[in-house]
Amino acid sequence: MAVTGKRTLTIGTRASKLALVQTDIVRTSLLRLRPELDIRVDHITTKGDVIQDRPLSEIGGNGLFITQIEEALRAGLIDLAAHSAKDLPSTLPPDMVLPAFLPRADVRDVLISRDNAVLAQLPAGARVGTSSPRRACQLRSMRPDLNLLDIRGNVDTRLRKLDEGQYDAIVLAAAGLERLGLLDRVTEWLDPQAFVPAVGQGALAVEVRADDSFMIELASALNDPDTSTAVRAERAFLARLGGGCSLPVGAYATLVEGNLHITGLIGSIEAGGIIIRGEYVGNPQGPEEAGIALAEGLLARGGRDVVEASEVGTL
Fold it and tell me: β-strand 249-256 against 96-101: which pairing, if any?
C-alpha cells in the first residue's frame, strides 16, 4: 500500500464496462465514509475474459473471473477486490474473506428479444442465446422447442449480437442492465420463483486478505445486513452441493416477516433433463444452516444422482 499525504488504496477489478461501473459503486461508497482516502482502480484480466471462444462450462474450474484478481490481492498489488457475487466460487481460499455485500440490485433474469416477443410467444426453433447452464436448463423446461445457443462476451457485445440477428432473443441479468442504464431493452422480466436466479445474482461483494484487519474493518462498513444474510444462505446452498459453473444450480433467498425464505434448484444439462426444486424457511440468524438444509433436501430427492452424474460426465 503506497504511503502519501492520503492513505492510498487500490481496488482490483475486471476491465469490462459493467465491472468498472460496479467498482465505482464500491469506490464511491468507501469515499462517502472515508473522503480522505485516495482510491485507485487496477484493471485485471482474468481467464474468463481471455477465453471467449468456448462456453464457460467447457473451460472448467471455478473462479474463472476471480483467480487472477485473488493472485493480485495475495501479492499485495491491490488492497481489495470488487466482484459480482454470482461470479464467486462457493468457497474462498483460506487467506481471503468477504467482509461486505453491498445492497442488492434486482435479482431477476430478463429476456430481450428482437421482435419484442415474450418467452411464451417466441416461435418454435427461435435462437436464444445464453452462456449459463442454469438458464439453459430452465429454458428447456419451459420451452423445449427453442434452439438454445451459447453466447459469450460482455453485455454490450451480447446486445450487439442480438441486434445483428445472430440470435432471436437472449437472457441476461437485470442487475447488469440496470447498472448500465439499459433497462429499456428488457422485453420480459422473469419471475425469480419460477426462473431461479444464480447464487448471489444482483449483489456486489468486496473481497480482501484475511490478515488485513484495516481493510476488513473498512469494508465491513459497506455491508448490507439483509443482502449479506440472503447471499450467505445461497452460497452455503451451493457449497453443500459442490456445484461449479458446469452444473445448473440456482438459489434465491429473501427475508419475509422475520423469516429467511430460500428457493433452490438443481438441474441436469441435457434436453428433457431433470429439474429438482425446493424451498426452505429458516432463521435469518443462521443463513448458512438454511442453505445447507435446502441443499440436503434436494439431494435427498434425487439431486445427489444429478450432481454425481455431472461430476463423471454422464449427463
Answer: unpaired
Helix (H, G, I), strand (E, B) or coil at 309: helix
C-beta atoms surrounding 156 within 10 Å:
13
The reported pTM is 0.90
Encode burial over 2-23: b for 16+ CB neighbours within 10 A, e otherwise: eeeeebebbbbbbebebbeebb
pLDDT at position 296 is 96
Contacts of 149 (CB under 8 A, 6+ apart): 127, 128, 129, 130, 167
How far is residue 289 from each of residues 188, 280, 285, 286, measured CA to CA in Å?
A: 34, 10, 9, 5
- In degrees rounded to 5, what are phi and psi of residue 301? -95, 20
Q: Cα separation of 157 and 163, whole Å?
A: 10
Spell out the domains of the chain, with CATH numbers in brackets: 1-102+203-223 (3.40.190.10), 109-189 (3.40.190.10), 224-310 (3.30.160.40)
Q: How far is the C-alpha of 84 from the C-alpha of 98, rounded, in Å?
A: 12
Which of the residues in the chain have pLDDT under 70? Answer: 1-5, 46-65, 243-246, 271-272, 311-315
Catalytic residue numbers read 87
CA distances from residue 260 to 79, 115, 251, 289 in whole angstroms, order as listed: 33, 39, 13, 11
